[in-house]
Amino acid sequence: MPHDLLPTLPSGRLRTMPPRRAARGLVAAAIVAAASVTLAPRPADACSIVTSDRLVLDPAYADDTVAPGPATVATPEIVRYPANEGCTGLDCSPNFVVLRPVASDDRAPAPRLGFRLRLIGGELPHDLWIGPEPLVPDGAGEVYLYFSDDDRGFAFQLEVQAVDLNGNAGPPVIVTVVGPAVDDDGCSTGGARGATGLGLVALAGLVASRGRRRGRRG
User: Fold this and answer.
1) pLDDT-based confidence at 182, cuts 50/70/90?
2) Are 136 and 103 in contact (CB under 8 A)?
3) pLDDT for 215 beyond 90
4) How far is the C-alpha of 101 from the C-alpha of 78, rounded, in Å?
């Protein structure tokens, strides 16, 4: 602190604080500093719920009639965390499927494109819900689909379409999502390589059956 801001005695000498009082002041300052660190918001940990944004159409693109190209989707990742004791539901066990779709458009920037998902085969894990609104990947290019704690394996197929800022949808691509069963109590991740052969065979049969029915209708 500059000397001209320090309290002074009438004689002009600087007023000093007794050592004991000064020590108490330092302790109080340290407590306040520690409290500010403790009470500061902590960054979300790996088990926090992070929702994907819905696509919002932009009037500036109202004259856009060209649909985006087909989406490219990397192999989906399955992330499972152990449930908190005595707690159930999505808030207690943030298990999720991570999709990383990308596409290009003639006008809309790639990071602003949405992706419409539709279940076409298999069975979703417990509490996983897919709505009609296109989802926009986050800054890391990821879309999260949450499901509640369930150690059983699953396999399903999604139809994925890129959607631009005027609602034009690109051609669909098929993505297979496979979650292996969990047999431990720790946080675990898995991909397609951890799936059981039975689940994949059942899913393939279901999709083939749907294809035959569509062919007969045509």
Assistant:
1) confident
2) no
3) no
4) 15
pTM for the full predicted model: 0.62
Q: Residue 71 and residue 162: Cα distance in Å, rounded? A: 6
Rounded to whole angstroms, how far apart are CA atoms 110 and 107?
9
Contact 81, 94 (CB under 8 A): yes
Record the tokens describing residue 154, joined without a space. 């699953």
What are the angstrom distances between the C-alpha of 190 and each of 102, 122, 132, 141?
22, 18, 27, 19
User: 3-class SS at 31?
Assistant: helix
Alpha-carbon distance of 143 to 161, in angstroms, equals 13
Q: What are phi and psi of 146, to 5 degrees?
A: -90, 150
Cα angle 85, 88, 91; round to 5: 100
Instruction: Write b or e for each residue in 87-106: b if 16 or more Cβ atoms lie within 10 A of its Cβ, otherwise e.
Output: eeebebbbbbbbbebbbebe
